Amino acid sequence: MKNFSLKFYSILFFLFFLAGCNNTGELSLDNKNEPFLGGENASVVITEFSDFECPACSQMPPILHSIANEFGNKIKIVYRNFPLPMHSHSREAAEAARCAYDQNKFWEMHDEIFANQNSLSKDKLKELAVKIGLDTTAFQKCFDGRQHAAKIEADFKEAVKLGITSTPTFFVNGQKFSGVTTYEVFKNIIEGELAKNPQ
Asked: Is 64 exposed, middle or buried (0-12, 13-18, 19+ CB in 10 A)?
């Protein structure tokens, strides 16, 4: 019964997504110089706007990694920031992740931050930098100097302009949908998009 319910809601969500595609125009997102998984020039682009302190967002990393592993360079999964005002450490966490991005370890930091979501103090974020093997001198200069504060604010403002009000919110080839999404739903959507643009 549990498997039936999962399949039913996955199909229902997929049909809802398709209906939305017929009623809204595709958006063009500027994802240049953003952290991503998969192929840089993939025909299917999934852009996630997320918040490191959002409990729902913390459910997505294993799902997105699984999707990335299955589809490889056929898809591109891009991470963008939408730090919600009620989360006191989300901006600092986003800035720390961007500092890790400077050292080509964004996804390692991304995963560690979500794994430690309930204790994201500045000291904890610095501990995570050590744990994943960052150059700590460079990281602390970046993090303490808030070198990516403007970038995080730019992401936030773009999200607001896009009408995003909650996290996680996804855009698949410019089509918007929100909330925790299962592996099965993502797979169905991706396969549908790949059928339109075979590689």
From this structure: buried
Ordered by start, the domain boundaries in the chain are: 2-196
Spatial separation of the C-alpha atoms in residues 37 and 76, rounded to whole Å: 6
Six-digit token string for 42: 């993939």
Question: Residues with Cβ < 8 Å from 92, sequence gap 6 or more?
Answer: 120, 122, 125
pLDDT in tens, 140-183: 999 999 999 999 999 999 999 999 999 999 999 988 989 998 99
Packing angle, helices 122-131 and 136-144, rounded to 10: 150
pTM over 0.90: no
Cis peptide before 83 (omega within 30 of 0): no
CATH architecture of 2-196: 3-Layer(aba) Sandwich (3.40)
Give the strand pairing for 75-81 and 44-50: parallel
Tokens of 81: 């920031």
Q: Which two tokens stand for residue 48?
A: 């996630």
Residues near 91 by beta carbon (within 8 Å), at least 6 away in sequence: 83, 149, 152
Residue 26 near residue 176, CB atoms below 8 Å:
no
